[in-house]
Structure prediction request, 115 residues.
Amino acid sequence: ERVVRGLSRIDQFDEFPLIALYQKTDIPMPGGPLGLANRLLQVELEILAEGDVPHAACDATLAAAHAAMLALAERPGCIGIEQAGLVWDGDEENPALGSCLATYHIQYRRPEATL
Prediction:
C-alpha cells in the first residue's frame, strides 16, 4: 500500500522516492460565468528521495511531478496552474534523505450545482 491518508503513516515507508499530495485550500474566486464557479485550489507535493547529495536526490522526481502537474492545465475545467513555492530540507536521522515541498495553485471552473 503506497497511498496513505495522514502524515503519521508516511513514516512507515522506507522505499524512495516517495510523493505525498496534500490538499491545503479550495476557495471561491470571483468572475465565473453564469452557472459556473471559479475556484482556487492550493496543493502541496512533498517529495522524499535518497542520494549522495540530499538536495539533489529529489530533482528527477520533482521534475516528473512538475510535468504531471503542468499537464493538468490541459484538462477540461482547468483555467491555469502555477508553482507558488519550493522549499528544500534534509533529515537529521537520515543524512542521505532529501525533502522538497512544492506548492501549486490550480485555478479551475465547475458548474455551481456540483459544489
